Every structure is written in structure tokens, then in C-alpha cells.
Amino acid sequence: MFSRLSRSQALAVLGVPVVALLATAGFAPLPFSVAQPGLTANVLGENKGTQVITITGAPVRKTSGQLRMTTIEATSPDTHVDLPDVIDSWFSTEQAVMPRDSVYPSGDSVKEIEQYNRAQMKESQDEATRAALHYLDREDDDIKVTLELADVGGPSAGLLFSLGIVDKLNGDGSGGDLTGGRVIAGTGTIDANGTVGAVGGVPLKTQAARRDGATVFLVPKDECSDARAELPDGLRLIPVTTLRSAVDALVSLENGKGQVPSC
């Protein structure tokens, strides 16, 4: 999934598996993309002057702390990537190489790719809303949730969207914030039942999270080993499998009661 920055800039990738591969030979254009840590955005606040989560039909809490969704940025599908680019990225901890076809649907134009990723983002937002309202047992209430995240596409902000909705409507369930005033970051798809799915690109996303002040990172449990591989200093990993497990872990972290899982 992608975040369109401009025609001359990178596209942000939210949910594509990042596989570092060495090219075997040649200086002709190679079928790879180069990725690096991308933008992050606090879903509890504004992004580019627009509130990310807007809720009507129910009282909304004033929150503290941050819940930051994370991305990676990849070279656009028409960028020339050659052997020196691949080798440089292979030895860099701040870049990764991935097969271009694993990032962009083969044969699609840049415009078609953008449309596809916008559609994925819309579906992700709808699923995140349903998951949050189902978790709160409020799916039958007259609550409308609008999610806005400019220039970002794809499904892997789903978990953070759901957590943001839960925090704004219910907090920790006892009057406090899910964040405990911390900067919490993370990644993961989510379905309407609250199941969290893997997204890829986690080592680059942890770097983006720490760069932007996060001290805790929520990671799909199946990607724990990837997240540990190049974990920045000062960033604590919390594995999650469902929206409920993510909420429970954050509540335990906030109040110091119960066990907080770790990778």
C-alpha cells in the first residue's frame, strides 16, 4: 500500500512484505524497489491540518498521548533501480530492497496503483470502524466515524485506527487514556472481528516510530522476529493478535497491573 507524496517523490508503503534481495548481475534496470522509513501520523490528532478521526452521535473524550500509524516509503514503479542501488540498500540498515511486483500490481500504471491503494485504505477504515464499535458493543448505536489520512493508502493502519476510535469513545474503560500519555506507535491490518494481520516492512516502521518519539510499538505477533531484527534503542515491542489483546496490553502498561506481553 502506498502514500502518494508527489510524482518525483517516493510512495509510502504500509502493508507490503519487505524482502532484501541481491541482484545477481547487470546494470540494466532491475525489477526491484528500494524502501526506507516513511511518515508516521498521530491518529488521535490532526494530519496536514485535518482531524484524522471525527466521531459524531456520541460523546468524545479529550485524549492525551499519541497513537502513531507508521509507513515505509518505496521508490515509484517507474524509478530506475540498478545493481549499485541494490547493493547499497543491502548493506544499509535504513533501506531495504524488495521485488517491485511485491510492491506494485504488475502491469498497472501509477494512476491505477494509486486508485487501488485508495480503495484498500477505504476498506481498511470501514473494517477498523466496525471492529472498534463491535469491541465496545456499540455497533447498533447511531455513531458515525469519519477517518481522514491524506496521501496514504493501503490497509495496515487498521489497528491504529481502531485503537484511536476506542480511545476517543471509551479510553481505558476507567476514565484514563489508552496511551497513558505515551507516544505509542504500531502497525497491523484489522478485520471487522478485530483480528490483527501481518503487514511487512516492520524493521523500517520501527525506525520511523522511534524517530518520531515513540517508546512503544504494537506489532502483529507473527512479525515479532522481524521487529526484533533491527529494533531501535528505547523502543518496546508489544505483540498483538486482536484489537482486544492490544487494548488489554495498553491498559496493563498504563496501570501497572497484569502482564504486558513482549516479543
UniProtKB/TrEMBL annotation:
<protein>
    <submittedName>
        <fullName>S16 family serine protease</fullName>
        <ecNumber>3.4.21.-</ecNumber>
    </submittedName>
</protein>
<keyword id="KW-0645">Protease</keyword>
<dbReference type="InterPro" id="IPR008269">
    <property type="entry name" value="Lon_proteolytic"/>
</dbReference>
<feature type="domain" description="Lon proteolytic">
    <location>
        <begin position="137"/>
        <end position="240"/>
    </location>
</feature>
<dbReference type="InterPro" id="IPR020568">
    <property type="entry name" value="Ribosomal_Su5_D2-typ_SF"/>
</dbReference>
<dbReference type="InterPro" id="IPR014721">
    <property type="entry name" value="Ribsml_uS5_D2-typ_fold_subgr"/>
</dbReference>
<dbReference type="GO" id="GO:0006508">
    <property type="term" value="P:proteolysis"/>
</dbReference>
<keyword id="KW-0378">Hydrolase</keyword>
<dbReference type="Pfam" id="PF05362">
    <property type="entry name" value="Lon_C"/>
</dbReference>
<dbReference type="GO" id="GO:0008233">
    <property type="term" value="F:peptidase activity"/>
</dbReference>
